[in-house]
């Protein structure tokens, strides 16, 4: 029995080292009203500013829910939505996110029969490259929510809606809330995130969120006829609880209306879901004389904690340290011990399910480079989310290598995309690139020196652009190069000597070089070439 409580830990109000909140708690919030590309506004219940979504996504169509679903209880946030009839995967890019910190991401969905089809819709949500949740939308007037806690490994993240054949994906709102460094760190790291199952505030009459909760977690009221409410107007100190439940949540609690036993339960989506539970306790009554409140905690009959006494006006947490699974319904029972004079209490609880991050995201240097290229040339199509992963959704015009961990971009084919301007420096950051085809565009300026740093390049096709100047000597560094196509530009000068030699030796196909200055005619390259040719005879 003693060992069975190994997986729950009580956090008494000792060791309280709390990072100073240097910035306003709202700093870093991203609050997006999806499908509203017209105006930003302040939400009256939270005083948070919501912004139009067109700066986070460039695909999809805006819609309003049907008017018969609109009444005063439907929040403004749900009135419009963005839907994605085209493409298998459509993503929002959220930036900036605080690198190496946990963030909360929450999406809401209200169908409101916006398309007049009275459909039931099912689609998947991904965070970055990993499956987050399958959304099943069956009630057109309900607001569905998905929420997860995740570690930011880069300074941006993406939320993707994936069409799995169950109808057109759509989304009503998207919110990102950064936590302090280290929060929920036991549950969230580079290899795992957690998905919210439920978060409840016992004995409350209203939902608590921002500003009472500086992280804008949503704490829903939870009451049962067999419970009675305890509350306090005094602040509950949460500095000893690493989950930092807000005082407004901890100031209400429930106790059994009669008897000495309190039970609450929830359903899991699947018995295979691996869950973590966090129970929050604070004593709200000043216990006088010899009165005591001591109880045992069991989960589905299994003892989890014995002889527990909540501290007075201080938030304490009992949380799972390893995930549990195996049931479709879970029940906690708090049972007063025989010598306790008072029945058990509980103030709040949270349940999360484990989300293993098994998919590897593309090399972050490659991602940064592609994001910069996308933005520089205003490229759209399916250029959203991770460039290479999952494999089924690789960006148009890219090929990746998955033999490496992380995956790397090996090919870029941007032929005939109507691209203009100079060749951008970010191409040089794609260190694993083997094939670069920028042909049949309107690139102008000179061939940049930095292309010579792409040491794995096998094919470089710059043909039929508006490039000028000389061919840089740095291209001689491309020792693996087998095809160099420079046709249809306005170069002058000559081709660098070593390239000519390799062409001569049949190691490099040097295509349609400009008329007057190609290898073998004039210039030093030509001379070398002729010498080489003679000595070959
Ligand atoms: C909260 O508790 C900590 C110790 O756990 C203490 O240092 C701090 O002063 C308390 N804050 C308030 C407002 O009571
Ligand atoms: C994100 O990180 C990249 C490099 O990793 C950097 O170039 C870029 O400026 C950063 N963006 C923000 C918004 O911090
Ligand atoms: C994030 O953590 C990684 C590895 O621990 C480190 O290399 C990187 O500098 C950190 N980034 C920031 C912004 O703290
Ligand atoms: C308001 O609309 C919601 C969602 O359509 C519905 O559930 C609710 O009953 C409506 N309330 C009123 C007062 O009409
Ligand atoms: C993440 O946390 C889990 C559970 O605590 C642990 O098993 C895993 O090794 C951690 N992974 C990393 C990369 O820290
Ligand atoms: C509490 O103490 C009072 C007197 O101090 C005593 O009468 C009473 O029986 C005690 N109650 C319990 C449950 O021990
Ligand atoms: C609660 O305690 C009572 C005795 O005080 C016991 O009969 C009952 O089985 C316990 N319930 C649970 C769920 O442990
Ligand atoms: C509480 O747990 C203790 C220690 O396991 C046990 O002796 C006691 O019977 C339990 N009481 C109840 C009411 O479950
Ligand atoms: C890149 O991928 C496309 C589509 O999968 C394929 O047709 C093409 O042959 C690949 N190119 C190279 C050079 O591997
Ligand atoms: C780029 O794509 C075009 C047509 O899609 C194809 O003809 C060309 O061979 C590709 N280039 C490379 C380097 O694979
Ligand atoms: C290049 O630009 C010119 C003038 O804007 C246009 O007529 C031509 O079609 C473009 N060529 C390519 C390959 O995009
Ligand atoms: C080609 O480049 C020249 C100068 O470099 C510029 O004047 C011209 O407009 C460009 N043509 C196209 C079609 O972009």
What labels would you give this structure?
537 residues, Leucine-rich repeat, LRR (right-handed beta-alpha superhelix), mainly beta, disordered C terminus, 7% helix, binds 2-acetamido-2-deoxy-beta-D-glucopyranose, six-stranded mixed sheet, 35 strands, Jelly Rolls, twelve-stranded mixed sheet, single chain
Descriptive account of the structure:
With 537 residues, this protein is mainly β. It has three domains: 8-183, Galactose-binding domain-like (Jelly Rolls, Sandwich), CATH 2.60.120.260; 200-356, Jelly Rolls (Sandwich); 364-535, Leucine-rich repeat, LRR (right-handed beta-alpha superhelix) (Alpha-Beta Horseshoe). Helices cover 7% and strands 34% of the residues. It contains four helices and 35 strands. It has helices at 247-250, 364-377, 497-504, 523-536, and strands spanning 8-11, 30-33, 41-42, 49-52, 61-64, 80-83, 89-94, 102-109, 121-127, 130-137, 144-151, 157-166, 170-171, 173-178, 192-202, 220-222, 227-231, 252-256, 261-267, 275-281, 295-299, 302-308, 316-320, 329-336, 348-356, 398-401, 408-413, 420-421, 435-437, 442-446, 459-461, 466-469, 483-485, 490-491, 509-511. Strands 1, 2, 3, 4, 8, 11, 14, 15, 16, 20, 23 and 25 form a twelve-stranded mixed beta sheet that branches. The protein has a six-stranded mixed beta sheet with strand order 26-27-29-31-33-35, with helices on one face. Strand 3 and strand 4 (49-52) form a beta hairpin. Helix 3 packs parallel to helix 4 (523-536). The termini are far apart. Mean pLDDT is 89; it is low at 1-23 and 521-537. The chain binds 2-acetamido-2-deoxy-beta-D-glucopyranose (12 copies). Keywords: Kinase, Leucine-rich repeat, Membrane, Receptor, Repeat, Signal, Transferase. One of its GO terms (molecular function) is kinase activity. Its main location: membrane.
